[in-house]
Amino acid sequence: MTLVQKHGEAAGHAATAIALLGIIPLALDAFWINLVGKYLAFAFVAIGIVLSWGYCGILSLGQGIFFGIGGYAMAMFLKLEASAPELPDFMVWSSVEQLPLWWEPFKSLGFTLFTILALPIAVAFPFSYAIFRKRVSGVYFAIVTISLALTVNVLLVGSQGETGGANGITDFRTLLGWDILGDGSKRTLYFVEALLLLAVMALAAALVHTRFGKLLIAVRDREDRVRFSGYDTAMIKAFVFSVAAVLSSIGGSLYTLQVGLITPGLIGAVASVEMVIFAAVGGRLSIVGAVLGALLIGFMKSYLSEQFPEFWLFFLGGLFIFVVVVMPNGLAGTLQRLVRFKA
Amino acid sequence: MSGITRRRFIQIGGSLVAAGAVPAAGLWPKIGYTADTVHLGLLHSLTGTIAIAEAALVDAEKMAIDEINAAGGVLGRKIEPIVEDGASDWPTFAEKAKKLLQRDKVPAIIGCYTSASRKAVLPVLSQSKGLLYYPTYYEGQEQDKHVIYTSQEATQSVIAAIEWLAKEKGKTFFLVGSDYIYPRTCNKIAKPTIARVGGKVLGEEYAPLGHTEFSSIISKIKAAKPDCIYSTVVGGSNVAFYKQLKAAGLDGTKQVLLSTVVSENEIDGIGKDNAVGYYACMGYFQSIKSPTNDRFVKALKAKYGQERVVGDPMECAYNSVYLWKMACERAKSFDVDKVIAASSELEFEAPEGKIKIHKTNHHVWKKVRIGRARADGQFDIVHESGMIEPNPFPKL
After folding, report:
1. B42 in Cβ contact with B109 (< 8 Å)
2. Are B91 and A305 inside 8 Å of each other by CB?
3. How do residues A134-183 score in pLDDT, each as one tens digit?
4. Are A162 and A91 in contact (CB under 8 A)?
5. Which CATH architecture has domain B154-282+371-384?
6. Does residue B42 belong to the interface with chain A, where contact is any CB pair within 8 Å?
7. Which range of residues forms the domain containing residue A140?
8. Are the Cβ atoms of A338 and B12 closer than 8 angstroms?
9. Domain B37-152+292-365 in CATH: superfamily?
10. What would you report as the CA-atom Rg of chain A, rounded to the nearest whole angstrom?
11. Cβ–Cβ below 8 Å for A170 and B47
């Protein structure tokens, strides 16, 4: 046990903080800072997946649903502000004459923020508790969640008068009168997001180091033994699944702010699987790895598709296969091994 | 740990550093135009679900660029295309448009196919003061000052199609569409037009995007017995829709069906047998007989293979490059505002015949044609309109 190893995790968090708050804002221009902001939105989701999948063994292929809750809630608020006092434009095109009732509360930012944090819990907790109580887990849970993601996607696309359909919700530029498209505001948004992410990383790390964190691992490895010891394992799993859902939702709302639109494509099965890949590439047992994975894949997507617009998907696919075959514990796992070797 | 030796560590470290150096090359902005070159952004889906329809547009655009370069370029500069992949994903379109405008500083982009991708790009255009040429027929209801719309907007094709159908084929209509903004808007235009020509709407049905089960809609059509079906079913759904119509005995010899979204390129995907005898209303058909079109089709086949077919969006994509070039030359500048100003009433002798950009509304005056699909996937042109004024915000 060396010093490096002992403090490896803390060092990882510190390095991430330095990179996010120091190196990236200094080295990159507004265009790339905005893109990094977009990638970081997925880092929130990936941290949630590390907690639920890496530590507790719950593989959800439906994180896009919660990403969508946050993303759409934020977009609805921004769209109402952008189009007030008229109806949002896509409603007019679809001959919707009156603002649907469920849109009304999204005129308030307070309610919107509350929805972003509370709705994922209200959906995830009862749903997953009921399922875990029935001792459905593993692959079956993954199938249930991916089907849900597909369903929600179809629902959103189908009700275009109220959700913007396949187009999604787009074309808004102010948050409470503050222009969110300009370079300066993108920078501010980036810093807010980076600080929020660092806080979430610290909280997540703290969580896995508590007694509860040990319990998560125990549930993952031998759930029956934990249950026989008198714990309500369904409750533990539902709790961590809800945490992952809230993190996804926060990520979604930041995505809408960074990118300036939200579309049903981000809620579907493909997007949800992609989110799991972020965590797998970064390392599903490492919170820093999750952030690293989201950043790396986001960057690779942007960069490779610019350099090889027709073949970039092959490179990306190759990268995924390489990581899964050669680095079963992702980038973070490999880094840990290297550090251990060096020391 | 066993697997890794010190040597291997150095190798890995070295390759990581090298891998880092490669991307850095792409991080720095390029310059929009120099003394001898000018960049032009081409932004379409080359991957993903829409690529099957959209990727061909890039081919037509590249051909126009090659032709222009061979003839001396634009304002003495060679056009260098920068191709970006929108990946059938709307946020990606926004990201790539931003990259083209802010980093490559392209003076114009030819791009987008679906309305969703165009809508995603609009805020970027207004923020970066960019210029987009949009080469696809679409639903109208839009006139962005940063966009030139080079295909027909809905009123141009829908009104002409309905009037022709009512005159030639009968006055009762059944409207079928995918549940999407284009079909809904087209039917919003079609209904008052049908009423105006003294016709009657017997039914209006929508299937979800990508739907492949049309039996209930088809039985409603059979019960209603309309003279004409007006279809705005889009994309892959048409394979199922046409096949099931045929199976129900409503093939092109027995039932009049007209679509404003099925061009030669779509028929390639739908299957020639399934589409025979149905009608389409488009600005351009490959079978147009004119020296300009003969040259265009021949050049395209010489470049990309004899089996290639050309549909309306490909031709409009080709026209877009020329319209931009001519506007730059008229403005003697690549400046977006000047190019837009110079585009007003700009005329171009396109493969489809003369087209003219509207004085104020950024759309294009053009003829539309009605064609009937043949067994070889081409259309027999049965009707040609006069020049139709674009009217993206019709009063209905």
Report:
1. yes
2. no
3. 998 889 999 999 999 999 998 898 888 899 888 899 988 888 888 888 88
4. yes
5. 3-Layer(aba) Sandwich (3.40)
6. no
7. 3-342
8. yes
9. Response regulator (3.40.50.2300)
10. 20
11. no
